[in-house]
Design brief:
Blueprint (H helix, E strand, L loop, with lengths): L13 H14 L6 H7 L6 H13 L3 E6 L2 E6 L3 H14 L4 H10 L3 H11 L45
Antiparallel strand pairs: 1-2
Helix pairs in contact: 1-3, 2-3
Length: about 170
């Protein structure tokens, strides 16, 4: 390898770069070009690297793009919390035993985080008044039913809340 360690003082990971790009897009006055993003995050990254990060974020549905002449303009579709949630879902989707992974995750939560998660799982549309409470025999599989065709963009009505009976 050529060069001294002083030439490349820090090596950022993909997650850190994605967070920087998203932060720049959230500060943008509207849709912006990749060159604008490159300049905003310090201009130290190659333009092709910025384009790669934007393309990866688009595949994760964290950003959107619109054609602007011969180029594209980009907008944040997700904040840092949304990007972290996408990463968590990707990890979960890659596991064969979802129930075991979720059970281990929940048992490792602090009492405050567990209380917060319980509060988040009790969504108004899933409340007792809706009549959609799961039957006693319904397990984690009950969350696999897709009552709405809205997909992941549908917001807080995702399937995990369907199996959250107390």
């Amino acid at each position: 390898m050529h060069g001294s360690p002083d030439e490349r003082p820090r090596r950022r990971g993909q997650g850190e770069l994605e967070a920087q790009v998203l932060a720049a897009l959230r500060q943008a006055p509207g849709p912006v070009t990749a060159a604008w993003v490159q300049d905003r995050i310090g201009g130290q990254l190659a333009y092709t690297t910025v384009m790669t990060i934007l393309t990866r974020l688009q595949a994760k549905r964290a950003v959107t793009r619109e054609r602007a002449g011969r180029s594209f303009e980009w907008c944040a579709a997700s904040d840092e919390a949304g990007l972290a949630a996408l990463r968590m879902r990707k990890v979960l989707d890659g596991e064969a035993d979802r129930e075991a992974v979720l059970a281990r995750f929940v048992t490792a939560l602090s009492p405050d985080d567990e209380r917060l998660l319980r509060d988040l799982l009790v969504l108004p549309e899933d409340g007792p008044e809706s009549g959609d409470a799961p039957e006693a025999g319904d397990g984690p599989e009950a969350g696999d039913g897709r009552s709405s065709g809205s997909g992941p963009e549908g917001g807080s009505g995702d399937a995990p809340g369907n199996g959250a009976g107390a």
